[in-house]
Amino acid sequence: MYIGKNIRKLVKDHIIEKRKTQIHSRFRVKEWHAAVRKGRHGGTGRRKGARNARMPSEVLWMRRQRVLRRLLRKYRDAKKITCSQYRQMYLRAKGNMYKNKNVLIESIHKDKADKKRDAELEAQREARRAKNTVRKEKRIARKAVVD
Questions:
Q1: Which residues touch 2 (CB under 8 Å, ≥6 apart)?
Q2: What is the mean pLDDT of residues 113-131?
Q3: CA 25, CA 9: separation in Å to the nearest integer?
Q4: I need a labelling partner for 7 at 20 to 30 A (CA). Which of 18, 22, 30, 124 fits?
Q5: Please, what is the end-to-end C-alpha distance for the chain in angstroms?
Q6: Using CA atoms, how far apart are residues 28 and 132, in angstroms rounded to an integer?
Q7: pLDDT band at 147 (very low <50, low <70, confident <90, very high)
Q8: What is d(CA 84, CA 106) in angstroms, rounded to the nearest whole number?
């Protein structure tokens, strides 16, 4: 007890002081993890495992197929594409023809534009044929009157 009293007196007189506890800061760790969440520090030197082990190509394929098929179903149900177009594009998607959803949408627009253009051209051809038949009939009628 006597030693304790002496020590207390030394502390009071500021001859000896209590050391502060050592702090182990996590500031740098938090900063690092925040950067990793943003996608930093993932270069080739950091990677363990092959590309296919890290993100299987099969999983990527399944995701892409599901996205494309969902879009095709939605468009078919909304009558934006016909059943035959749906089937054709479904099989193309299965055959890895569309890299992503945007490419598929683009091809749908292109297909619809082609169909519209073909219909317009056919209408023009039909009009031309009708005009020609009228001309032909007039010519025949004139020839009949002259003879």
A1: none
A2: 96
A3: 34
A4: 22
A5: 150
A6: 85
A7: confident
A8: 18
Amino acid at the residue 51: R
Tell me how far apart the alpha carbons of residues 29 and 65 are, in angstroms, rounded to a whole number.
39
Global pTM? 0.68
Token pair, residue 121, equals 């051209």
> Which two structure tokens, joined as six digits, stand for 129?
């044929």
The two three-digit tokens of residue 64, written as one number:
């892409």
CA atoms of 69 and 91, how far apart (whole Å): 10
CA-wise closest residue to 68 among 53, 48, 90: 90
Alpha carbons 46 and 12: distance in angstroms, whole number: 54
Mean pLDDT score across all residues of the chain:
95
Q: What are the C-alpha distances in Å from 139 to residues 131, 133, 144, 147?
A: 12, 10, 9, 12
Please answer whether residues 81 and 89 qualify as being in contact, where contact means their C-beta atoms are separated by less than 8 angstroms.
Answer: yes
DSSP class of 112: H
* Element of type H or E holding 13: none
Q: What's the sign of the alpha-carbon dihedral 88, 90, 92, 94?
A: negative
**Which residue, 87, 84, 85, is CA-closest to 107?**
85
